[in-house]
Design a protein that fits this description.
Length: about 210
């Protein structure tokens, strides 16, 4: 079986591989991102297979049929079979965003970096997630005086964390950043538009807990 460090896939390709490999579940976000997969049926399926072959993720068997590489389906298995998935969305005020999903299956984690119609898929471990997390939230320099409270529309960046046990519960956390300081929704305020100062290490520890499934 080939060794693959990462895959670059479209939402349609993720859906198709799950379908032909007997996947049990697929996050609806992938389905929502697909473009007209149901309208042209078999033609679309052949186009997807041809695209996978061009990328080296499918090959022709001795009967002339195209089959998805086992290494490809192996890397994606937690996406379709895992019972816990976590999510990190970083959204800049400018509109730029970073969106990661982490699919957990026993002691395996598959990460998916979601970008338009090109998703980067990798096998991950907890140390790699921690390293990535700290690089994303590494801002330590306070560019202005730390305010105890800010309005939500003053935030320069929003941070969304989500953890889902499939078929059970989902937890969701929202943080914001301004001038290198981090903020959370203030429970003592009646308005959810008011955020209070929170230490960066609290945000990072919560992110680790949610993303790693600890």
């Amino acid at each position: 079986m080939k060794r693959m460090k990462e895959l670059i896939l479209s939402p349609e390709e993720i859906y198709y591989i799950g379908k032909v490999s007997g996947g049990k579940y697929l996050d609806y976000d992938y389905i929502a991102a697909m473009q007209d997969i149901g309208k042209r049926g078999k033609i679309k399926a052949q186009e997807i297979l041809d695209g996978l072959e061009r990328k080296g993720y499918a090959e022709e068997d001795f009967l002339g049929n195209l089959e998805v590489e086992p290494a490809c389906t192996e890397m994606l298995q937690p996406v379709y079979q895992g019972m816990y998935e976590s999510e990190l969305i970083l959204r800049e005020e400018s509109g730029a965003s970073v969106h990661y999903k982490f699919h957990h299956m026993e002691n395996r984690i598959t990460s998916v970096e979601c970008r338009a119609q090109e998703y980067r898929v990798r096998a991950q471990d907890k140390k790699e997630i921690e390293k990535m997390l700290y690089s994303l939230l590494e801002e330590d320099v306070h560019t202005e005086e730390r305010e105890a409270y800010i309005a939500i529309d003053q935030a320069e960046r929003s941070i969304i964390l989500k953890g889902t046990h499939i078929g059970k519960d989902t937890c969701l956390y929202f943080y914001a950043e301004k001038g290198g300081s981090f903020y959370e929704i203030a429970p003592e305020q009646k308005e959810e538009t008011i955020l209070r100062l929170v230490e960066k290490n609290v945000v990072c520890e919560q992110a680790k807990k949610i993303l790693m499934g600890d």
